[in-house]
peptidylprolyl isomerase (Roseburia faecis), 406 residues
Amino acid sequence: MKKRVVILFLCMTMVLSMGACGTDSDKKASTQQGTQETASEVFDGPHSAQMKLDLSKLVTKLADYKGIDVTISGNYDVTDDQVEQNLMSLLPYYGITGVEVKDRDTVQKDDYVKVDYTGYLDGDAFDGGSATDTMIDVANNCDATQKTNYIDGFSDGLVGAKVGDEVSSDVTFPENYQSSDLAGKKTTFKFKIKGIYKPVTMDTLTDDMVADAFTEQKITTKKDLVAYVRQVLEKQAANSKSQASISAVEDDLLDKCKVTIPDEYLDARLQEYQHEFEADNCNDTQTLEQYAKNNNTTVDDMKKQWKELMIKQIKIEFIFGRIAEKENITISDDDFKSFVDYLVSSGNSQMADENAVYKYYGGGNKEDGKKTLRQLYVVNQAISYVVEKANITVKPDTQTTESSEN
């Protein structure tokens, strides 16, 4: 049962996203008082959770759902090259940017150089124009750690300099530069050369470097770091494959089954969705109309899109809810509590505890929210059941493979 619960946690987002609240892309985290007050208001329209549904009549055609054949596209096998690429891109964020060069003291064009620098405008140092112990990728004129680009010509004066030298470069900021004080202005940057480095490679990465950088992760060797990165990538690939399989199974049954949605139920769900959407995105200073205008759309267009998504979502819930009935799929109190605890730990300030979770999904009504979540959880158990029995063919995504090779 534990395995099933883990699978459900991965796919619950797809059903919950249109269950009673906005999708992740719709939501905006906010600490504004107006938003918090709006979010706590109780939805006063008809509650869908209180409506009795006979799925045996609403799902007028339930297609065969055991052992269905579906095909998904994607590349879900993690290669050694992917592990190495991700590992190398990870190192700079943990302070591993280069290996110090000690057999020469002159900067070459493909070096990393550690410098202190200060920018001057008309002879005076300007705000934001200085840094210490910065590692510069000379060849690419960018920060070796963040890979952010510098102004053209910024690092030109470094090639040929020696460790301990002080050199300068004259650069002109672009006319459209974000700071009007610097836009189009000619400036001078003075550098103090503090060390020469070569980019780290898998061959030059050492156990000591790994142990120093990844202390908190308790990773002490290069071999362990490779295993850690591979594990992360494999989990991501498995999650992607799981989501693709869920979508394929849902689409297959949506195409083959027939569902009737009562008008009053659809209206209630749409009203509940709009209530939660406004709670998440609107406040005393921004109405729904203003939100729409700010996002280059209209309320009518938003409602049209919501209705299309909601119809699809409800059909999924009805189909898999009916499957749950036929297969006697139920939910234990322990599993449900684990899921609610998972939502509490999600970081959403409006779901800080168990009661808040229920109110969030019940439009302020705790019992409605609890009933809604239990229904959606059972739906997801049914989805997991069908996915596990499906014959899933994986078709390699050649476009993704070609782009990754390039």
